[in-house]
Specification:
Elements lengths: L1 H10 L8 H19 L2 H5 L2 E10 L8 E5 H5 L9 E12 L2 E12 L2 E15 L2 E10 L9
Parallel strand pairs: 1-6
Antiparallel strand pairs: 1-2, 3-4, 4-5, 5-6
């Protein structure tokens, strides 16, 4: 009995361990975040379906809490003179065939200073063997953000 329990523990997936499938799903997301940091809109558009959507929630100075635009529209905001760094933590990944979902907390920094944080929800589609981001929906807040 003890031998079976030990074998089960040794063969169980390690919490937080990334599988090859997870790595493939995360690859376009990591490339997307790198394009934000580089201020490279063309690189960003290579990781997404341009007609997909970016949806933000959270109060802004304009008073509206919901903002939506296509990736093509969002790309207009990505410029080399105003890059930003977005870091994800603890991504949760679900895959079923050629669709995937990634849910992760994030922190955004501009010039090294934390500007906002929240949760990202990416949905991805595998087309021709390659994963691309279809949509990104995220919450955003400026208080209670970790300093990490």
């Amino acid at each position: 009995m003890k031998r079976h329990l030990l074998a089960a523990l040794l063969l169980a997936p390690v919490a937080g361990a990334e599988t090859a499938s997870d790595a493939a799903v995360l690859a376009p997301i990591h490339a997307l975040l790198a394009s934000f940091e580089a201020g490279d809109a063309a690189a960003m558009l290579r990781q997404v379906f341009p007609d997909g959507r970016v949806t933000a929630t959270g109060a802004r100075q304009s008073g509206t809490g919901l903002r939506q635009q296509s990736w093509t529209q969002f790309a207009e905001r990505i410029r080399p003179d105003s890059p930003f760094e977005e870091r994800l933590s603890e991504p949760r990944i679900d895959v079923d065939g050629d669709i995937a979902m990634v849910w992760a907390t994030f922190v955004v920094r501009v010039k090294g200073q934390v500007t906002n944080c929240g949760v990202d929800h990416f949905d991805l589609v595998r087309d021709g063997g390659a994963w691309k981001v279809m949509n990104l929906t995220f919450s955003s807040r400026t208080t209670g953000c970790p300093a990490r």
